[in-house]
Amino acid sequence: MFEARLVQGSLLKKVLESIKDLVTDANFDCSQNGFALQAMDSSHVSLVALLLRNDGFEHYRCDRPMTMGMNLTNMSKMLKCAGNDDIITMKADDAGDVVTFMFESPEQDKISDFELKLMDIDSEHLGIPDTEYAATVKMPSAEFQRICRDLSSIGDTVTISVSKDGVKFSTTGDIGQANITCRQNTSVDKEEQTVIELQEPVTLTFALRYLNSFTKATPLAPTVQLQMSKELPVVVQYLIADMGYVRYYLAPKIED
Amino acid sequence: GSAQKSLTSFFFTK
After folding, report:
1. Chain A residues within an 8 Å CB radius of B10
2. Cβ–Cβ of A253/B11 closer than 8 Å?
3. d(CA A100, CA A32)
4. Do A40 and B7 lie within an 8 Å CB cutoff?
5. What share of chain B is helix, strand, coil (3-state, %, to 5)?
6. How far is CA A2 from CA A37, A45, A76, A115, A135, in A?
7. Coil, strand, or helix at residue B9?
8. Residue A228 pairs with which residues in a beta bridge?
9. Which residues contact A75 (CB under 8 A, 6 or more apart)?
10. Nearest 5°: phi and psi at A244?
11. Cα separation, A30 vs A66, whole angstroms
């Protein structure tokens, strides 16, 4: 038996919006620790990892680990039927082939249940080693979203260069080129600022199409963290307050 | 030109 009740149901709606553009079908892994997912996009150059810890739910029960395969487009259709203030409960039997989403209005005067058919999905689980990254950038998530969106109107790829002075985003396209530099913010009173931790300067190039998909997670967190090392996939992480994270990995473009 | 490797070449498959 799996049962998870989330008073802030809008969080689950936002989580789904943050992954459904990247992945169509995915296995959710439910365990005593929480509700998790790891999935690659169809071209296998990007990966999303989600964790919602058990203690972030008002009620959480998972008698034995289970995998629930869902079509995310269909899951999204159902979650869109929940009000933003609704409480969402997910329920599934151990041997069942459906998951039930129950929506309760805050005044408890409307209760809905939606049953989604589960599916068998073959998926590769990747082991991602813990790595010390050469550069870590924390910046306002809305700023990162804006930069990715703006640059994708000029070019298809972005080169991200991190030095001790700041982080530079550059692109080139048919119409010209663009550079945006965010300097490390030195004012201490600003909560959302650009902070750089640097072991050594690093420059990597990525497809903007994927980064733009990652920024669908912007409503989940005020800050985004980018971690980069030479010739390694970038990690783009959004922390979900008191609950877990949505983390994306993207392979860099490498010169032939 | 530039190429993009699969993530499976960076991480190991479980």
Report:
1. 232-233, 251
2. no
3. 19
4. yes
5. 20, 35, 45
6. 15, 32, 20, 14, 39
7. helix
8. A135
9. A16, A20, A116
10. 160, -140
11. 5
Among left, alpha and beta (phi > 0; psi -120 to 50; other), residue A176 is left
Q: Write the ipTM.
A: 0.90
Give the gap in angstroms from C-alpha B8 to the nearest C-alpha of chain A.
7
Q: Rounded to a whole number, what is the distance in Å from the CA of B10 to chain A's nearest CA? A: 7
Residue ranges of B 1-14 with Cβ closer than 8 A to chain A: 1-14
For the record, the structure tokens of A201 come out as 């300067």
Q: CA distances (Å), A21 to each of A24, A76, A91, A185, A238, in order?
A: 7, 11, 25, 32, 16
The rounded distance, in Å, linking the Cα atoms of A122 and A152 is 33
Burial of A207 per CB tally in 10 Å (0-12, 13-18, 19+): buried
Question: Which residues in chain A have their CB less than 8 angstroms from residue B3's CB?
Answer: 253-256
The residues, ordered by sequence, that sit 6+ positions from A190 with a Cβ below 8 Å of its Cβ are: none
The residues facing A97 across adjacent strands are none
The three-class DSSP label of residue A39 is strand
- Tens digits of per-residue pLDDT, A37-61? 999 999 999 999 999 999 999 999 9
| Residue pointed to by tokens 């999935």 | A39
Both tokens of residue A8? 């802030």
- CA distances (Å), A119 to each of A13, A15, A38, in order? 20, 20, 16
pLDDT tens figures, A71-119: 999 999 999 999 999 999 999 999 889 999 999 999 999 999 999 999 9
